[in-house]
């Protein structure tokens, strides 16, 4: 990666952001930094430009829907563990591995927790988020330029001092709004939406917010209800743009199930996306219903059922792979993997190996872990194809 550091002057566009006064915690006043003027003001900004081939992946979901778990599976596919930036803000939301940087879009909240309460808006409301800055910074990183990204501190609810983010090979922007702003959406090389049904989302939030954050059941219920109008208005509609959707629903294998532990998971894959060939079961484009349990695979109640079929989703042609139920033993997954095609694995059993490597992650025994792992492999394949195509284009250009 050819890196050159240049001093650049650029009139920053009309970007402004709110932050709390870093000194007066009591007043919790928010200060509006001077709006960067459109005039030809000159800023000395250290910009690291690199001949960087950064691909950008967008992952959208509501809070508590498994984004962090998915990111751990994805970054593992590329090798290396993603860690918070060393020596930086201990409350940074960013994760960095040697190939991938994961940015949490909460960092583009334009209002802190107090500011949102004063303005009467939730964090899901576009009015509480700075899409101009999000667009400018994702565009800069995609073109190989480092940025000073703001930090939203989930511990204090304040907007902390920015952190320097270098352009990575793979940039993942995850959070509430990766596909909300058309400008940002157009920067994405691949996009995923985690569509968790209300029943399942509630069960996961209870498990986490009560067990790990000490919240009461009532406050969790109130929080989900309070966010629902904005979720329906601003978050859920993004799924129409996603190249892949992972739908998580209650099982259909247990009549009147009210435990919510056994899940039906659907991987909805858009057809015709460049460098992305949907996974299929047995025969591409056919309609298959398959119960793998029997002589070759032992299953306890309620067992496992796969479906595969062509479908349409928001007027797009898609292929849907569905798994209802859960594995008793993860090493049995190899039997299922051997009947799936277009997995973009580099060797036989790589999906099973990845799942076994993270057997302690939530969802490792059902379709959520399986499909998150498969999508991670598809993203690796997309990255390698994109890099190869850009190398070819550069070679052609050099010949011309
Ligand atoms: N596939 C799964 N099966 C069961 N529980 C899950 C699954 N994925 C995530 N969870 C649980 O849901 C909760 C939220 O998971 P996670 O932190 O990955 O979500 P998130 O979207 O990153 O949350 P937030 O946006 O609040 O940081 C955790 O308690 C986690 O254990
Ligand atoms: O929807 C969310 C995304 O994670 C959070 O609720 C939002 O970012 C506000 O965070 P906090 O509740 O910590 O102030």
From TrEMBL:
Compartments in which it is found: Plastid, Chloroplast
Domain of life from the UniProt record: Eukaryota
EC number: 2.7.1.19
Any single Gene Ontology cellular-component annotation: chloroplast
SUPFAM superfamilies assigned: P-loop containing nucleoside triphosphate hydrolases (SSF52540)
Keywords attached to this entry: ATP-binding, Calvin cycle, Chloroplast, Disulfide bond, Kinase, Nucleotide-binding, Photosynthesis, Plastid, Transferase, Transit peptide
Stretches assigned to the Phosphoribulokinase/uridine kinase domain: 56-254
GO MF terms held by the record: ATP binding; phosphoribulokinase activity; protein homodimerization activity
Known catalytic reactions: D-ribulose 5-phosphate + ATP = D-ribulose 1,5-bisphosphate + ADP + H(+)
Location, primary (coarse class): plastid
Protein name per UniProt: Phosphoribulokinase
């Amino acid at each position: 990666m050819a890196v050159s550091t240049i001093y650049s002057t650029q009139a920053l566009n009309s970007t402004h952001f709110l932050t709390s006064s870093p000194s007066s915690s009591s007043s919790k006043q928010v200060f509006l930094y001077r709006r960067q003027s459109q005039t030809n003001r000159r800023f000395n900004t250290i910009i690291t430009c690199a001949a960087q081939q950064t691909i950008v992946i967008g992952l959208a979901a509501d809070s508590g829907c498994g984004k962090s778990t998915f990111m751990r599976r994805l970054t593992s596919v590329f090798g290396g563990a993603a860690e918070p930036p060393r020596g930086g803000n201990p409350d940074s939301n960013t994760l960095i591995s040697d190939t991938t940087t994961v940015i949490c879009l909460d960092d583009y909240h334009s209002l802190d927790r107090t500011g949102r309460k004063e303005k009467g808006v939730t964090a899901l409301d576009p009015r509480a988020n700075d899409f101009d800055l999000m667009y400018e910074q994702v565009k800069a990183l995609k073109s190989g330029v480092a940025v000073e990204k703001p930090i939203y501190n989930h511990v204090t609810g304040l907007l902390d001092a920015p952190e320097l983010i270098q352009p990575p090979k793979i940039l993942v922007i995850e959070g509430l709004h990766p596909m909300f702003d058309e400008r940002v959406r157009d920067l994405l090389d691949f996009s995923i939406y985690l569509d968790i049904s209300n029943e399942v989302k509630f069960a996961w939030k209870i498990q986490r917010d009560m067990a790990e954050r000490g919240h009461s059941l009532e406050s969790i219920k109130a929080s989900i209800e309070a966010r629902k109008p904005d979720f329906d208005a601003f978050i859920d509609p993004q799924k129409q743009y996603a190249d892949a959707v992972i739908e998580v629903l209650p099982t259909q294998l247990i009549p009147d199930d009210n435990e919510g532990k056994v899940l039906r998971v659907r991987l909805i894959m858009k057809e015709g996306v460049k460098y992305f060939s949907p996974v299929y079961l047995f025969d591409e484009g056919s309609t298959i219903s398959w119960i793998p349990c029997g002589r070759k695979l032992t299953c306890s109640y309620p067992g496992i059922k796969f479906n595969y079929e062509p479908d349409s989703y928001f007027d797009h042609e898609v292929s849907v792979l569905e798994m209802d139920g859960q594995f008793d033993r993860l090493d049995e997954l190899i039997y299922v993997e051997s009947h799936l095609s277009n997995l973009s694995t580099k060797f036989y059993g790589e999906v099973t190996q990845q799942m076994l490597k993270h057997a302690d992650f939530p969802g490792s025994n059902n379709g959520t872990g399986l499909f998150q792992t498969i999508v991670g492999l598809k993203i690796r394949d997309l990255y390698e194809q994109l890099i190869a195509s850009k190398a070819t284009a550069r070679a052609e250009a050099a010949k011309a």
